[in-house]
Design goal:
The protein is an alpha+beta fold. Helix content is 50%, strand content 22%.
Length: 153
């Protein structure tokens, strides 16, 4: 396997890209919804106008929440220290288990480096909570399944 610190850097970079893309998409959708809401408010179509305006407001609120969630992810990711060299699973760890490879960072799903798959999992996820503090050779339990820690970097 390649240099683990380099893999962690690449995984972190992919998580940053994931967060930035979510922020960009939410921002663009929010701006578009706000522009539509502004256009709708220029109309004077009575009840139809009020219904359209209310629907636009709901859409604006939805995209505002999505943007806030993406910004929270960015803050959470900024707390990840990829230069740690703990032998136990902590935030920022790359963990090899009998179930696959996990990067304990943010919940960004499946990532790929050189055709190898890794899963970015939040420290608050069920998986991370099941293996947090464990070291090579330890076993964690999640939903009735045993997870064996093969390596921690």
């Amino acid at each position: 396997m390649a240099n683990h610190s380099e893999i962690k850097k690449q995984l972190y970079s992919q998580c940053q890209d994931y967060v930035e893309k979510r922020i960009q998409i939410a921002t663009e959708a929010l701006n578009s919804s706000q522009a539509s809401a502004n256009d709708e408010s220029k109309s004077t179509a009575g009840d139809k106008h009020d219904t359209g305006k209310a629907m636009m407001q709901i859409e604006v609120e939805q995209f505002s929440r999505q943007l806030a969630e993406a910004q929270k992810l960015k803050i959470e990711l900024s707390r990840v220290n990829i230069s740690n060299s703990n032998s136990t699973v902590v935030l920022g760890s790359l963990v090899e288990t009998d179930k696959g490879f996990y990067f304990i960072s943010i919940s960004a799903g499946k990532l790929e480096i050189n055709t190898k798959h890794y899963f970015a999992a939040s420290i608050s996820s069920g998986f991370a909570q099941a293996v947090k503090g464990l070291k090579k050779g330890d076993k964690g339990h999640l939903h009735g399944s045993v997870i064996e820690i093969l390596n921690v970097w």
